[in-house]
Amino acid sequence: MAELSKTDEAVDAPAEVIEEKALEAFAAPVERGEPILQVRNLVKHFPLTKGILMKRQIGAVKAVDGVSFDLYQGETLGIVGESGCGKSTVAKLLMLLETATSGEVFYKGQDITKLSGRALKAVRRNIQMVFQDPYTSLNPRMTVGDIIGEPFEIHPEVAPKGDRRRKVQELLDVVGLNPEYINRYPHQFSGGQRQRIGIARGLALNPEIIICDEPVSALDVSVQAQVINLMEKLQDEFNLSYIFIAHDLSIVRHISDRVGVMYLGKMAEIGTDTQIYDHPTHPYTQALLSAVPVPDPEVREQRERIILTGDVPSPANPPSGCRFRTRCWKAEDRCATEEPLLAIPTRFKGKDTPAAHVSACHFAEEKAILAV
């Protein structure tokens, strides 16, 4: 494909219109209906201060800096990116474990970032989380029965007090653990079993959305497969929606319907699993895919390996314009002065091609990477 010229505009409408069209573009197919979760321009800046007694702010770590996406009922949205790109911070913001600097999170049309007290408690019942470390996320002084049953103490309307033990045993059985393990402690289980306990705790209140923050990264490969298969089975059984955060691109493709690629606090590209993996248009996505290990030696020889130069910039002082430009082989003067918006590139607009998905790059073009 020919390179875009410097004058070839990625968009040709006002910023407000562009943003709305971009959100429409990376939405799931129409048949899914309205999104169950809508994230709009989510921002989280952690202040940097100086001084001991008289503290003053001298800057901010821009962990998340304008992230938008939709999640549909029964769908899995994968979020990938390097360490430090803001994936886990997004998860905490969606759970309101961190307070957003700005932006909106709509759950069934209601902005949950404005909620507090009972209203927030009611929403949290429907949005649960599975944490990365299956050991530190479980209280070592509590039995499995107490850990899984704790949500019932917070939301007693879900299960009467006399019925909670039976409910916990049912949940253990659902995630593939012996119900008789109810009186054991976390240290008596393997890593995979502990993650199953975390999943059971997440399922206790019959949520509609589960946010999975690297739920299998601490597990062995064989155990990873078991947990992923369990999550897919539970999704079909309970019609769950997942936000699945991970580093492993092969696992993300296996479980996700759509994928968002993050870089330095922003979304670089969003599309279906086929669009992202087989027809990536953003240089960062292409570099990530080229780094995926491939067991077949013939494929390894044929594949172009993209080596990025330099280090990831500090989120406290991100580059102007495009944040990826300091490591990008396509960077030009325009990239330093004009921030690319998440939109369908001009060359693909109106075309029935998998490359016609949103990408935050002035010079986006399709590049096939033999990866996963």
Automatic annotation (TrEMBL):
Q: Which residues form the ABC transporter domain?
A: 37-289
Which keywords does UniProt give here?
ATP-binding, Nucleotide-binding, Transport
Quote the Gene3D superfamilies the UniProt record gives. Answer: P-loop containing nucleotide triphosphate hydrolases
Pfam families, per database record: ABC_tran, oligo_HPY
Tell me the SUPFAM superfamilies matching this sequence. Answer: P-loop containing nucleoside triphosphate hydrolases
| CDD domains referenced in this protein's UniProt entry, alphabetically | ABC_NikE_OppD_transporters (cd03257)
* Gene Ontology molecular function terms on file: ATP binding
- Family, per entry: Belongs to the ABC transporter superfamily.
Q: Write down what this protein is called.
A: Dipeptide ABC transporter ATP-binding protein
